[in-house]
Amino acid sequence: MSLRIFIPGDAGAVAVGADEVAAAFATVARERGVVLDIIRNGSRGLYWLEPMVEVETPAGRIAYGPTAPGDAPSLLDAVLGSGQHRLRQGRAEDIPWLKRQTRLTFARCGIADPRSLADYQRQGGGKGLERALLLGPPATIETVVQSGLRGRGGAGFPTGIKWRTVAQTSAPRKYVVCNADEGDSGTFADRMIMEGDPFVLIEGMAIAAFAVGATKGYIYIRSEYPHAVAAMNAACAAARRGGLLGRGIGGSSHDFDIEVRVGAGAYVCGEETSLLESLEGRRGVVRAKPPLPAHHGLFGKPTVINNVLSFASVPIILEQGAAFYWGFGAGKSRGTMPIQLAGNVKYGGLFETAFGITLGELVDDIGGGTFTGRSVRAVQVGGPLGAYFPRALFDTPFDYESFAARDGLIGHGGLVLFDDTVNMARQARFAMEFCAIESCGKCTPCRIGARRGVETIDRIIGDDNRAAHLDVLQDLCHTMKYGSLCALGGFTPYPVMSALTHFPEDFGAAPKRLQAAE
Ligand SMILES: Cc1cc2nc3c(=O)[nH]c(=O)nc-3n(C[C@H](O)[C@H](O)[C@H](O)COP(=O)(O)O)c2cc1C
Ligand code: SF4
Predict the structure, then answer these.
(1) Angle 225-227-230 (CA atoms, 0-180°, nearest 5)?
(2) Residues 6+ apart with CB under 8 A from 123
(3) What is the CATH number of the domain that holds 398?
(4) Strand, helix or coil at 63?
(5) pTM for the whole thing?
(6) How many angstroms is it from 169 CA to the middle of ligand 2?
(7) Do 128 and 260 fall within a single domain?
(8) Residue nearest to atom 8 of ligand 2 (CA)
(9) Rounded alpha-carbon distances, angstroms, from residue 30 to 35, 65, 421, 438
(10) How many domains does the chain divide into?
(11) Relative to the CA of 275, which ligand 1 atom is closest?
Protein backbone atom coordinates (compact mmCIF):
# COMPACT_ATOMS: atom_id res chain seq x y z
CA MET A 1 0.00 0.00 0.00
CA SER A 2 1.32 3.40 -0.91
CA LEU A 3 1.06 6.44 1.32
CA ARG A 4 -1.34 9.03 -0.12
CA ILE A 5 -0.53 12.68 0.46
CA PHE A 6 -2.24 15.76 -0.88
CA ILE A 7 -0.28 18.88 -1.89
CA PRO A 8 -2.34 21.61 -3.56
CA GLY A 9 -1.68 22.43 -7.20
CA ASP A 10 -3.76 25.59 -6.67
CA ALA A 11 -2.04 28.72 -8.00
CA GLY A 12 -2.21 30.38 -4.57
CA ALA A 13 -0.37 27.45 -2.98
CA VAL A 14 2.04 27.18 -5.90
CA ALA A 15 2.88 30.87 -5.43
CA VAL A 16 4.18 30.09 -1.95
CA GLY A 17 6.14 26.98 -2.93
CA ALA A 18 3.73 24.02 -3.27
CA ASP A 19 5.52 22.70 -6.39
CA GLU A 20 8.88 22.74 -4.57
CA VAL A 21 7.33 20.99 -1.55
CA ALA A 22 5.84 18.30 -3.83
CA ALA A 23 9.22 17.82 -5.54
CA ALA A 24 10.99 17.57 -2.17
CA PHE A 25 8.54 14.90 -0.96
CA ALA A 26 9.05 12.91 -4.16
CA THR A 27 12.85 13.06 -3.78
CA VAL A 28 12.90 12.10 -0.08
CA ALA A 29 10.46 9.25 -0.67
CA ARG A 30 12.56 7.91 -3.56
CA GLU A 31 15.75 8.08 -1.48
CA ARG A 32 14.09 6.15 1.33
CA GLY A 33 12.26 3.67 -0.88
CA VAL A 34 8.86 4.83 0.35
CA VAL A 35 6.03 4.47 -2.17
CA LEU A 36 4.30 7.82 -2.13
CA ASP A 37 1.17 8.76 -4.07
CA ILE A 38 1.19 12.58 -4.33
CA ILE A 39 -2.17 14.05 -5.34
CA ARG A 40 -2.20 17.68 -6.41
CA ASN A 41 -5.55 18.69 -4.96
CA GLY A 42 -7.23 22.09 -4.86
CA SER A 43 -6.69 24.38 -1.92
CA ARG A 44 -8.97 24.18 1.12
CA GLY A 45 -8.73 27.98 1.11
CA LEU A 46 -6.78 28.46 4.34
CA TYR A 47 -4.09 30.44 2.59
CA TRP A 48 -1.97 31.31 5.63
CA LEU A 49 -1.34 27.56 6.01
CA GLU A 50 -0.29 27.00 2.39
CA PRO A 51 1.44 24.95 1.22
CA MET A 52 -0.77 22.75 3.40
CA VAL A 53 0.12 19.07 3.08
CA GLU A 54 -2.50 16.49 4.01
CA VAL A 55 -1.74 12.86 4.75
CA GLU A 56 -4.37 10.15 4.44
CA THR A 57 -4.63 8.08 7.63
CA PRO A 58 -7.26 5.73 9.08
CA ALA A 59 -8.35 8.67 11.29
CA GLY A 60 -8.88 10.96 8.28
CA ARG A 61 -6.68 13.44 6.47
CA ILE A 62 -4.12 15.04 8.80
CA ALA A 63 -2.97 18.52 7.80
CA TYR A 64 0.50 20.05 8.17
CA GLY A 65 1.31 23.63 7.26
CA PRO A 66 2.63 26.01 6.22
CA THR A 67 5.33 23.71 4.84
CA ALA A 68 8.61 24.37 3.06
CA PRO A 69 10.70 21.98 0.92
CA GLY A 70 13.14 21.57 3.83
CA ASP A 71 10.33 20.14 5.99
CA ALA A 72 9.86 17.10 3.72
CA PRO A 73 12.32 14.75 5.52
CA SER A 74 11.00 15.46 9.02
CA LEU A 75 7.39 15.37 7.82
CA LEU A 76 7.94 11.99 6.19
CA ASP A 77 9.50 10.75 9.46
CA ALA A 78 6.44 12.03 11.29
CA VAL A 79 3.84 10.49 9.04
CA LEU A 80 5.63 7.15 9.02
CA GLY A 81 6.00 7.33 12.81
CA SER A 82 3.94 8.99 15.53
CA GLY A 83 2.40 11.63 13.28
CA GLN A 84 3.60 14.38 15.60
CA HIS A 85 5.25 17.43 14.04
CA ARG A 86 5.47 21.13 14.87
CA LEU A 87 3.45 21.93 11.72
CA ARG A 88 0.65 19.49 12.53
CA GLN A 89 -2.80 21.11 12.40
CA GLY A 90 -4.81 17.95 13.16
CA ARG A 91 -7.59 16.55 11.02
CA ALA A 92 -8.22 19.02 8.20
CA GLU A 93 -12.01 18.98 8.78
CA ASP A 94 -11.48 19.81 12.45
CA ILE A 95 -9.48 23.00 11.85
CA PRO A 96 -11.87 25.56 13.42
CA TRP A 97 -11.67 27.96 10.45
CA LEU A 98 -12.88 25.19 8.15
CA LYS A 99 -15.29 23.66 10.64
CA ARG A 100 -17.23 26.92 11.02
CA GLN A 101 -18.04 26.98 7.31
CA THR A 102 -21.01 25.64 5.39
CA ARG A 103 -19.49 24.32 2.23
CA LEU A 104 -22.09 23.65 -0.44
CA THR A 105 -20.48 25.11 -3.58
CA PHE A 106 -17.00 24.24 -2.28
CA ALA A 107 -18.02 20.85 -0.87
CA ARG A 108 -15.34 18.96 -2.80
CA CYS A 109 -12.71 21.67 -3.32
CA GLY A 110 -9.46 20.52 -1.72
CA ILE A 111 -10.87 17.04 -1.18
CA ALA A 112 -11.34 15.48 -4.63
CA ASP A 113 -8.60 14.97 -7.18
CA PRO A 114 -9.35 17.74 -9.71
CA ARG A 115 -7.87 15.70 -12.54
CA SER A 116 -10.09 12.67 -12.05
CA LEU A 117 -13.72 12.47 -13.15
CA ALA A 118 -13.92 9.07 -11.45
CA ASP A 119 -12.89 10.64 -8.13
CA TYR A 120 -15.44 13.45 -8.65
CA GLN A 121 -18.15 10.83 -9.09
CA ARG A 122 -16.87 8.79 -6.11
CA GLN A 123 -17.26 11.93 -4.00
CA GLY A 124 -20.90 12.33 -5.06
CA GLY A 125 -20.40 14.49 -8.16
CA GLY A 126 -22.72 14.03 -11.12
CA LYS A 127 -25.94 13.51 -9.15
CA GLY A 128 -27.25 16.99 -9.98
CA LEU A 129 -27.19 16.33 -13.72
CA GLU A 130 -28.72 12.88 -13.20
CA ARG A 131 -31.60 14.46 -11.33
CA ALA A 132 -32.04 17.23 -13.92
CA LEU A 133 -32.25 14.64 -16.69
CA LEU A 134 -34.97 12.84 -14.74
CA LEU A 135 -36.90 16.04 -13.99
CA GLY A 136 -36.75 17.47 -17.52
CA PRO A 137 -36.01 21.09 -18.51
CA PRO A 138 -39.07 22.95 -17.06
CA ALA A 139 -38.82 21.32 -13.61
CA THR A 140 -35.05 21.82 -13.58
CA ILE A 141 -35.50 25.54 -14.19
CA GLU A 142 -38.27 25.70 -11.57
CA THR A 143 -35.93 24.06 -9.02
CA VAL A 144 -33.27 26.71 -9.65
CA VAL A 145 -35.91 29.48 -9.40
CA GLN A 146 -37.29 28.08 -6.13
CA SER A 147 -33.82 27.68 -4.61
CA GLY A 148 -33.46 31.47 -4.58
CA LEU A 149 -30.02 31.30 -6.24
CA ARG A 150 -28.89 34.73 -7.43
CA GLY A 151 -25.97 35.48 -9.72
CA ARG A 152 -22.69 35.41 -7.81
CA GLY A 153 -20.86 37.57 -10.37
CA GLY A 154 -22.01 40.82 -8.81
CA ALA A 155 -25.44 41.92 -9.93
CA GLY A 156 -27.34 39.26 -7.97
CA PHE A 157 -29.95 38.61 -10.65
CA PRO A 158 -32.05 35.43 -10.03
CA THR A 159 -30.36 32.63 -11.98
CA GLY A 160 -33.50 30.58 -12.64
CA ILE A 161 -35.37 33.56 -14.10
CA LYS A 162 -32.50 34.16 -16.53
CA TRP A 163 -32.59 30.49 -17.58
CA ARG A 164 -36.37 30.58 -18.01
CA THR A 165 -36.06 33.58 -20.35
CA VAL A 166 -33.57 31.73 -22.56
CA ALA A 167 -35.63 28.53 -22.46
CA GLN A 168 -38.69 30.45 -23.67
CA THR A 169 -36.91 31.70 -26.80
CA SER A 170 -36.97 29.65 -29.95
CA ALA A 171 -33.72 29.70 -31.88
CA PRO A 172 -31.79 27.14 -33.94
CA ARG A 173 -28.82 27.57 -31.60
CA LYS A 174 -28.42 28.76 -28.02
CA TYR A 175 -25.32 29.21 -25.92
CA VAL A 176 -24.21 28.85 -22.32
CA VAL A 177 -21.34 31.15 -21.37
CA CYS A 178 -19.43 31.02 -18.13
CA ASN A 179 -17.98 34.31 -16.91
CA ALA A 180 -14.61 33.42 -15.37
CA ASP A 181 -13.03 36.82 -15.89
CA GLU A 182 -12.89 37.33 -12.09
CA GLY A 183 -11.42 40.83 -12.14
CA ASP A 184 -12.57 42.06 -8.72
CA SER A 185 -9.84 42.97 -6.27
CA GLY A 186 -9.47 40.44 -3.47
CA THR A 187 -11.39 37.68 -5.23
CA PHE A 188 -10.19 34.21 -6.14
CA ALA A 189 -13.17 31.87 -5.60
CA ASP A 190 -13.75 31.25 -9.33
CA ARG A 191 -10.11 30.36 -9.75
CA MET A 192 -10.22 28.00 -6.77
CA ILE A 193 -13.23 26.14 -8.18
CA MET A 194 -11.71 25.84 -11.65
CA GLU A 195 -8.43 24.54 -10.23
CA GLY A 196 -9.84 22.53 -7.34
CA ASP A 197 -13.19 21.14 -8.54
CA PRO A 198 -13.53 21.82 -12.28
CA PHE A 199 -16.12 19.10 -12.86
CA VAL A 200 -18.68 20.86 -10.67
CA LEU A 201 -18.55 23.83 -13.05
CA ILE A 202 -18.87 21.56 -16.08
CA GLU A 203 -21.81 19.79 -14.44
CA GLY A 204 -23.51 23.11 -13.63
CA MET A 205 -23.09 24.32 -17.22
CA ALA A 206 -24.35 20.98 -18.57
CA ILE A 207 -27.49 21.31 -16.41
CA ALA A 208 -28.02 24.85 -17.72
CA ALA A 209 -27.55 23.71 -21.31
CA PHE A 210 -30.03 20.87 -20.88
CA ALA A 211 -32.53 23.19 -19.19
CA VAL A 212 -32.50 25.91 -21.85
CA GLY A 213 -31.76 23.78 -24.93
CA ALA A 214 -28.20 24.95 -25.62
CA THR A 215 -25.68 22.72 -27.33
CA LYS A 216 -22.51 24.78 -27.06
CA GLY A 217 -20.80 26.43 -24.11
CA TYR A 218 -17.80 28.67 -23.57
CA ILE A 219 -15.78 29.39 -20.45
CA TYR A 220 -14.15 32.81 -20.69
CA ILE A 221 -11.16 32.78 -18.33
CA ARG A 222 -8.92 35.74 -17.61
CA SER A 223 -5.43 35.44 -19.06
CA GLU A 224 -3.85 35.84 -15.60
CA TYR A 225 -5.20 32.38 -14.67
CA PRO A 226 -3.01 29.93 -16.63
CA HIS A 227 -3.44 27.17 -14.01
CA ALA A 228 -7.22 27.47 -14.24
CA VAL A 229 -7.08 27.41 -18.05
CA ALA A 230 -5.02 24.21 -17.97
CA ALA A 231 -7.25 22.62 -15.32
CA MET A 232 -10.45 23.42 -17.23
CA ASN A 233 -9.06 22.19 -20.55
CA ALA A 234 -7.97 18.92 -18.93
CA ALA A 235 -11.31 18.55 -17.14
CA CYS A 236 -13.30 19.19 -20.34
CA ALA A 237 -11.27 16.50 -22.11
CA ALA A 238 -11.88 14.06 -19.23
CA ALA A 239 -15.59 14.98 -19.20
CA ARG A 240 -15.80 14.26 -22.92
CA ARG A 241 -14.17 10.85 -22.39
CA GLY A 242 -16.51 10.15 -19.45
CA GLY A 243 -19.75 11.13 -21.20
CA LEU A 244 -20.40 14.30 -19.18
CA LEU A 245 -19.79 16.36 -22.33
CA GLY A 246 -20.21 15.60 -26.02
CA ARG A 247 -22.96 13.60 -27.66
CA GLY A 248 -25.77 12.50 -25.34
CA ILE A 249 -24.58 13.99 -22.04
CA GLY A 250 -25.09 11.75 -19.02
CA GLY A 251 -26.75 9.12 -21.23
CA SER A 252 -29.47 11.52 -22.42
CA SER A 253 -30.29 12.55 -25.97
CA HIS A 254 -28.94 16.08 -25.38
CA ASP A 255 -25.60 17.09 -26.92
CA PHE A 256 -23.43 19.68 -25.24
CA ASP A 257 -19.77 20.62 -25.45
CA ILE A 258 -17.61 23.34 -23.92
CA GLU A 259 -14.69 25.38 -25.25
CA VAL A 260 -12.30 27.28 -23.02
CA ARG A 261 -11.38 30.78 -24.20
CA VAL A 262 -8.73 33.03 -22.67
CA GLY A 263 -9.56 36.71 -22.12
CA ALA A 264 -7.45 39.49 -23.50
CA GLY A 265 -6.99 41.17 -20.13
CA ALA A 266 -9.39 44.03 -19.38
CA TYR A 267 -11.54 44.50 -16.30
CA VAL A 268 -14.48 45.57 -18.43
CA CYS A 269 -14.39 42.23 -20.28
CA GLY A 270 -16.05 40.82 -17.13
CA GLU A 271 -19.13 42.88 -17.94
CA GLU A 272 -21.33 40.39 -19.73
CA THR A 273 -21.95 42.19 -23.02
CA SER A 274 -18.36 43.29 -23.30
CA LEU A 275 -17.34 39.67 -22.65
CA LEU A 276 -19.58 38.54 -25.51
CA GLU A 277 -17.95 41.10 -27.83
CA SER A 278 -14.55 39.77 -26.79
CA LEU A 279 -15.67 36.15 -27.33
CA GLU A 280 -16.78 37.11 -30.82
CA GLY A 281 -13.27 38.40 -31.50
CA ARG A 282 -13.80 42.11 -31.07
CA ARG A 283 -12.55 44.71 -28.62
CA GLY A 284 -14.31 44.46 -25.27
CA VAL A 285 -16.82 47.31 -25.54
CA VAL A 286 -20.09 47.28 -23.62
CA ARG A 287 -23.30 46.77 -25.62
CA ALA A 288 -26.40 48.80 -24.88
CA LYS A 289 -29.21 46.78 -23.23
CA PRO A 290 -31.83 45.87 -24.34
CA PRO A 291 -31.61 43.52 -26.10
CA LEU A 292 -30.60 41.30 -23.18
CA PRO A 293 -28.07 38.50 -23.81
CA ALA A 294 -30.91 36.10 -22.95
CA HIS A 295 -32.58 37.17 -26.21
CA HIS A 296 -29.67 38.37 -28.31
CA GLY A 297 -26.39 37.17 -26.87
CA LEU A 298 -23.37 35.40 -28.32
CA PHE A 299 -23.40 35.61 -32.13
CA GLY A 300 -26.86 37.15 -31.79
CA LYS A 301 -28.32 33.96 -30.28
CA PRO A 302 -30.12 33.48 -26.92
CA THR A 303 -27.43 33.05 -24.31
CA VAL A 304 -27.25 32.12 -20.64
CA ILE A 305 -24.32 33.94 -19.12
CA ASN A 306 -23.49 33.21 -15.51
CA ASN A 307 -20.60 33.47 -13.13
CA VAL A 308 -18.51 30.38 -12.21
CA LEU A 309 -19.98 30.26 -8.69
CA SER A 310 -23.55 30.51 -9.97
CA PHE A 311 -23.04 27.46 -12.21
CA ALA A 312 -21.05 25.62 -9.54
CA SER A 313 -23.90 26.06 -7.03
CA VAL A 314 -26.46 24.42 -9.32
CA PRO A 315 -25.46 20.71 -8.99
CA ILE A 316 -26.08 20.63 -5.24
CA ILE A 317 -29.39 22.47 -5.71
CA LEU A 318 -30.56 19.81 -8.15
CA GLU A 319 -29.17 17.00 -6.04
CA GLN A 320 -30.60 18.16 -2.69
CA GLY A 321 -33.63 20.11 -3.89
CA ALA A 322 -34.65 23.77 -3.89
CA ALA A 323 -35.87 23.76 -0.27
CA PHE A 324 -32.51 22.50 0.99
CA TYR A 325 -30.64 25.42 -0.60
CA TRP A 326 -33.33 27.96 0.29
CA GLY A 327 -32.97 26.81 3.91
CA PHE A 328 -29.66 28.64 4.17
CA GLY A 329 -29.41 32.42 4.18
CA ALA A 330 -31.65 35.31 5.06
CA GLY A 331 -34.33 37.48 3.40
CA LYS A 332 -33.92 37.46 -0.37
CA SER A 333 -30.32 36.24 -0.13
CA ARG A 334 -30.62 32.47 -0.06
CA GLY A 335 -28.03 29.75 0.15
CA THR A 336 -24.36 30.23 0.89
CA MET A 337 -21.77 32.70 -0.36
CA PRO A 338 -18.10 31.84 -0.83
CA ILE A 339 -16.60 34.94 0.80
CA GLN A 340 -12.99 35.81 0.07
CA LEU A 341 -10.88 37.55 2.73
CA ALA A 342 -7.93 39.46 1.33
CA GLY A 343 -5.78 42.57 1.63
CA ASN A 344 -4.19 43.33 4.99
CA VAL A 345 -5.78 40.36 6.79
CA LYS A 346 -4.37 37.89 9.29
CA TYR A 347 -6.30 34.81 8.15
CA GLY A 348 -6.92 35.29 4.44
CA GLY A 349 -8.78 32.76 2.37
CA LEU A 350 -12.07 31.30 1.26
CA PHE A 351 -14.89 31.21 3.80
CA GLU A 352 -18.18 29.80 2.52
CA THR A 353 -21.11 30.50 4.79
CA ALA A 354 -24.83 31.20 4.73
CA PHE A 355 -25.82 34.81 4.06
CA GLY A 356 -26.50 36.79 7.22
CA ILE A 357 -23.15 36.69 9.03
CA THR A 358 -22.12 40.26 9.94
CA LEU A 359 -19.23 42.13 8.37
CA GLY A 360 -17.67 42.49 11.83
CA GLU A 361 -17.71 38.72 12.41
CA LEU A 362 -16.02 38.21 9.07
CA VAL A 363 -13.36 40.84 9.68
CA ASP A 364 -12.59 40.28 13.36
CA ASP A 365 -13.51 36.67 14.18
CA ILE A 366 -12.87 34.94 10.87
CA GLY A 367 -10.22 37.21 9.39
CA GLY A 368 -8.54 37.83 12.76
CA GLY A 369 -8.08 41.53 11.96
CA THR A 370 -5.10 42.83 10.03
CA PHE A 371 -1.89 41.02 9.15
CA THR A 372 0.08 44.02 10.41
CA GLY A 373 -1.66 43.80 13.79
CA ARG A 374 -2.86 47.39 13.59
CA SER A 375 -6.52 48.31 13.88
CA VAL A 376 -8.83 47.81 10.90
CA ARG A 377 -9.84 51.20 9.52
CA ALA A 378 -11.77 50.28 6.39
CA VAL A 379 -12.98 47.27 4.45
CA GLN A 380 -13.78 47.45 0.78
CA VAL A 381 -16.50 44.95 -0.03
CA GLY A 382 -17.42 43.84 -3.55
CA GLY A 383 -14.34 44.64 -5.61
CA PRO A 384 -13.02 47.93 -7.00
CA LEU A 385 -16.56 49.27 -7.44
CA GLY A 386 -17.57 48.40 -3.87
CA ALA A 387 -17.96 50.82 -0.97
CA TYR A 388 -15.48 51.27 1.88
CA PHE A 389 -17.11 50.38 5.17
CA PRO A 390 -15.82 51.83 8.46
CA ARG A 391 -16.02 49.97 11.78
CA ALA A 392 -19.27 51.83 12.56
CA LEU A 393 -20.97 49.74 9.85
CA PHE A 394 -19.52 46.38 10.87
CA ASP A 395 -22.94 45.30 12.15
CA THR A 396 -24.13 45.06 8.51
CA PRO A 397 -25.31 41.52 7.72
CA PHE A 398 -23.60 40.05 4.68
CA ASP A 399 -26.45 39.92 2.19
CA TYR A 400 -27.46 41.76 -0.98
CA GLU A 401 -30.18 43.97 0.54
CA SER A 402 -28.40 44.97 3.77
CA PHE A 403 -25.33 46.17 1.87
CA ALA A 404 -27.44 48.01 -0.72
CA ALA A 405 -29.34 49.73 2.11
CA ARG A 406 -26.02 51.14 3.31
CA ASP A 407 -24.88 52.28 -0.13
CA GLY A 408 -22.66 49.25 -0.63
CA LEU A 409 -22.69 45.99 -2.54
CA ILE A 410 -21.45 42.48 -1.90
CA GLY A 411 -20.44 41.96 -5.53
CA HIS A 412 -18.52 38.72 -5.98
CA GLY A 413 -17.93 38.38 -2.23
CA GLY A 414 -14.45 39.89 -1.93
CA LEU A 415 -13.37 41.69 1.25
CA VAL A 416 -10.20 43.78 1.22
CA LEU A 417 -9.02 44.98 4.64
CA PHE A 418 -7.02 48.15 5.32
CA ASP A 419 -5.35 49.15 8.57
CA ASP A 420 -5.19 52.61 10.13
CA THR A 421 -2.30 53.73 7.91
CA VAL A 422 -4.57 53.91 4.85
CA ASN A 423 -5.29 57.29 3.32
CA MET A 424 -8.87 57.23 2.08
CA ALA A 425 -8.54 60.26 -0.20
CA ARG A 426 -5.80 58.30 -2.01
CA GLN A 427 -8.14 55.29 -2.22
CA ALA A 428 -10.88 57.48 -3.70
CA ARG A 429 -8.40 58.81 -6.24
CA PHE A 430 -7.40 55.23 -7.04
CA ALA A 431 -11.06 54.32 -7.73
CA MET A 432 -11.39 57.15 -10.25
CA GLU A 433 -8.02 56.35 -11.80
CA PHE A 434 -8.96 52.67 -12.11
CA CYS A 435 -12.20 53.64 -13.85
CA ALA A 436 -10.35 56.01 -16.20
CA ILE A 437 -7.86 53.30 -17.17
CA GLU A 438 -10.38 50.46 -17.49
CA SER A 439 -13.22 52.44 -19.12
CA CYS A 440 -14.29 50.96 -22.46
CA GLY A 441 -14.89 54.52 -23.63
CA LYS A 442 -18.41 54.03 -24.93
CA CYS A 443 -20.18 56.58 -22.72
CA THR A 444 -19.18 60.10 -21.68
CA PRO A 445 -19.93 60.08 -17.91
CA CYS A 446 -17.41 57.26 -17.44
CA ARG A 447 -14.85 58.03 -20.16
CA ILE A 448 -14.54 61.74 -19.36
CA GLY A 449 -15.99 61.78 -15.84
CA ALA A 450 -13.39 59.45 -14.37
CA ARG A 451 -10.53 61.59 -15.74
CA ARG A 452 -12.11 64.76 -14.33
CA GLY A 453 -12.62 62.83 -11.09
CA VAL A 454 -8.89 62.14 -10.74
CA GLU A 455 -8.10 65.81 -11.38
CA THR A 456 -10.73 67.00 -8.92
CA ILE A 457 -9.50 64.70 -6.15
CA ASP A 458 -5.94 65.88 -6.83
CA ARG A 459 -7.13 69.45 -6.25
CA ILE A 460 -8.88 68.44 -3.03
CA ILE A 461 -5.77 66.64 -1.79
CA GLY A 462 -3.65 69.66 -2.81
CA ASP A 463 -6.02 72.05 -0.96
CA ASP A 464 -6.80 73.97 -4.15
CA ASN A 465 -10.17 75.59 -3.50
CA ARG A 466 -11.10 72.49 -1.53
CA ALA A 467 -14.69 73.29 -0.57
CA ALA A 468 -15.70 74.04 -4.16
CA HIS A 469 -13.97 70.93 -5.48
CA LEU A 470 -15.65 68.74 -2.88
CA ASP A 471 -18.96 69.97 -4.28
CA VAL A 472 -17.78 69.28 -7.85
CA LEU A 473 -16.74 65.76 -6.87
CA GLN A 474 -20.14 64.97 -5.39
CA ASP A 475 -21.87 66.40 -8.43
CA LEU A 476 -19.63 64.39 -10.74
CA CYS A 477 -20.34 61.18 -8.80
CA HIS A 478 -24.06 61.84 -9.16
CA THR A 479 -23.68 62.21 -12.94
CA MET A 480 -21.56 59.06 -13.26
CA LYS A 481 -23.94 57.03 -11.09
CA TYR A 482 -27.07 57.90 -13.03
CA GLY A 483 -25.64 58.63 -16.51
CA SER A 484 -23.24 55.72 -17.18
CA LEU A 485 -24.16 52.90 -19.50
CA CYS A 486 -22.79 50.11 -17.31
CA ALA A 487 -21.75 49.52 -13.71
CA LEU A 488 -18.07 50.38 -14.26
CA GLY A 489 -18.86 54.08 -14.55
CA GLY A 490 -22.09 53.74 -12.60
CA PHE A 491 -20.57 52.17 -9.50
CA THR A 492 -17.22 53.97 -9.30
CA PRO A 493 -19.00 56.61 -7.18
CA TYR A 494 -19.52 53.94 -4.48
CA PRO A 495 -15.88 53.71 -3.34
CA VAL A 496 -15.42 57.46 -3.89
CA MET A 497 -18.52 58.61 -2.03
CA SER A 498 -18.12 56.07 0.78
CA ALA A 499 -14.55 57.26 1.34
CA LEU A 500 -15.77 60.85 1.39
CA THR A 501 -18.77 60.14 3.61
CA HIS A 502 -17.11 57.91 6.19
CA PHE A 503 -13.58 59.34 6.20
CA PRO A 504 -14.00 63.08 5.44
CA GLU A 505 -10.99 63.96 7.57
CA ASP A 506 -8.71 62.38 4.94
CA PHE A 507 -10.03 64.88 2.40
CA GLY A 508 -9.37 67.76 4.76
CA ALA A 509 -13.10 68.25 5.24
CA ALA A 510 -15.09 68.50 8.45
CA PRO A 511 -17.52 65.58 8.81
CA LYS A 512 -20.53 67.83 9.45
CA ARG A 513 -20.15 69.85 6.26
CA LEU A 514 -20.21 66.74 4.11
CA GLN A 515 -23.25 65.29 5.81
CA ALA A 516 -25.07 68.58 5.14
CA ALA A 517 -24.09 68.33 1.46
CA GLU A 518 -25.66 64.85 1.07
C1 LIG B 1 -17.14 46.30 -15.09
C2 LIG B 1 -17.78 45.00 -14.76
C3 LIG B 1 -16.99 43.87 -14.54
C4 LIG B 1 -17.59 42.65 -14.24
N5 LIG B 1 -16.79 41.58 -14.01
C6 LIG B 1 -17.36 40.37 -13.79
C7 LIG B 1 -16.54 39.22 -13.61
O8 LIG B 1 -15.31 39.30 -13.63
N9 LIG B 1 -17.15 38.04 -13.39
C10 LIG B 1 -18.53 37.92 -13.36
O11 LIG B 1 -19.04 36.82 -13.20
N12 LIG B 1 -19.32 38.99 -13.52
C13 LIG B 1 -18.77 40.20 -13.75
N14 LIG B 1 -19.58 41.29 -13.95
C15 LIG B 1 -21.05 41.07 -13.93
C16 LIG B 1 -21.53 40.58 -15.30
O17 LIG B 1 -21.82 41.71 -16.11
C18 LIG B 1 -22.82 39.75 -15.18
O19 LIG B 1 -23.72 40.38 -14.33
C20 LIG B 1 -22.56 38.33 -14.68
O21 LIG B 1 -21.60 37.68 -15.46
C22 LIG B 1 -23.86 37.53 -14.75
O23 LIG B 1 -23.67 36.29 -14.11
P24 LIG B 1 -24.38 35.97 -12.72
O25 LIG B 1 -25.83 36.33 -12.88
O26 LIG B 1 -24.19 34.52 -12.53
O27 LIG B 1 -23.72 36.80 -11.70
C28 LIG B 1 -19.00 42.55 -14.20
C29 LIG B 1 -19.81 43.68 -14.42
C30 LIG B 1 -19.19 44.90 -14.69
C31 LIG B 1 -20.06 46.08 -14.92
S1 SF4 C 1 -19.67 53.06 -18.00
FE2 SF4 C 1 -17.56 53.03 -18.78
S3 SF4 C 1 -17.15 50.89 -19.18
FE4 SF4 C 1 -19.38 51.09 -19.01
S5 SF4 C 1 -20.11 51.50 -21.10
FE6 SF4 C 1 -19.71 53.51 -20.22
S7 SF4 C 1 -17.58 53.93 -20.85
FE8 SF4 C 1 -17.88 51.75 -21.11
Answers:
(1) 110
(2) 108, 111, 112
(3) 3.10.20.600
(4) strand
(5) 0.96
(6) 28
(7) yes
(8) 440
(9) 8, 22, 50, 50
(10) 4
(11) 17
Of the bound ligands, which one is closest to the alpha carbon of residue 479? 2
Q: What pLDDT, on a 0 to 100 scale, did the predictor assign at position 511?
A: 53
Give the tens place of pLDDT for each residue, 437-492.
Answer: 999 999 999 999 999 999 999 999 999 999 999 999 999 999 999 999 999 999 99
Mean pLDDT of 222-249: 97
CB distance 151 to ligand 1 below 6 Å: yes
How far does residue 463's CA lie from ligand 1's centre (Å)?
37
DSSP tag of 294:
T
Query: SS3 for 185?
Result: coil
Q: What is the pLDDT of residue 513?
A: 45
Residues 314 and 336 in one domain: no
Q: Is 414 exposed, middle or buried (0-12, 13-18, 19+ CB in 10 A)?
A: buried
Q: Residue 231: pLDDT above 90?
A: yes
- Separation of CA 478 and ligand 2 centre (Å): 15
Q: How far is the CA of 373 from the centre of ligand 1 (A)?
A: 34
Same domain, 287 and 340: no
| pLDDT tens for each residue of 94-125 | 999 999 999 999 999 999 999 999 999 999 99
Pocket lining: 487 vs ligand 2, CB cutoff 6 Å? no
Q: How many CB atoms within 10 Å of residue 358?
A: 16
Alpha-carbon distance of 38 to 74, in angstroms, equals 17
Give the number of C-alpha atoms closer than 13 A to the C-alpha of residue 459, restricted to the C-beta side: 15
As to burial, measured by CB atoms within 10 angstroms (0-12 exposed, 13-18 middle, 19+ buried), residue 73 is: middle
For 502, the domain range is 424-517
Same domain, 305 and 211: yes
Looking at the structure, tell me whether residues 273 and 178 fall in a common domain.
yes
Of 53, 71, 99, the residue that ends a domain is 99
Both 192 and 65 in one domain: the answer is no
Residue 435: give its domain's CATH number: 1.20.1440.230
Task: Look at strands 336-343 and 333-334 and give their pairing.
Answer: unpaired
- Whether residue 243 sits in one domain with residue 155: yes
How close is the Cα of 146 to the center of ligand 2, in Å? 34
Asked if residue 321 and residue 249 are part of one domain, the reply reads yes
User: What is the amino acid identity at position 234?
Assistant: A
Q: How many CB atoms lie within 10 A of CB 120?
A: 26
Q: Is ligand 1 within 6 A of the CB of residue 384?
A: no
Q: Which of 419, 445, 477 is the last residue of a domain?
A: 419
CA–CA separation, 514 and 518 (whole Å): 7
The sheet with strand 175-180 has its strands ordered as 257-262, 216-221, 175-180, 303-307
The pairing of beta strand 257-262 with beta strand 88-91: unpaired
| Domain assignment present for 106 | no
Q: Is 244 within the bounds of a domain?
A: yes
Please give the number of the atom of ligand 1 that sits closest to the Cα of 311: 26
Q: Look at residue 88 and give its three-state secondary structure.
A: strand
**Residue 52: closest CA among 81, 9, 101, 104:** 9
CB 172 within 8 A of CB 287: no
User: Is the Cβ atom of 268 under 6 angstroms away from ligand 1?
Assistant: yes
At residue 209, what is the residue type?
A: A
Averaged pLDDT for residues 145-172 = 97
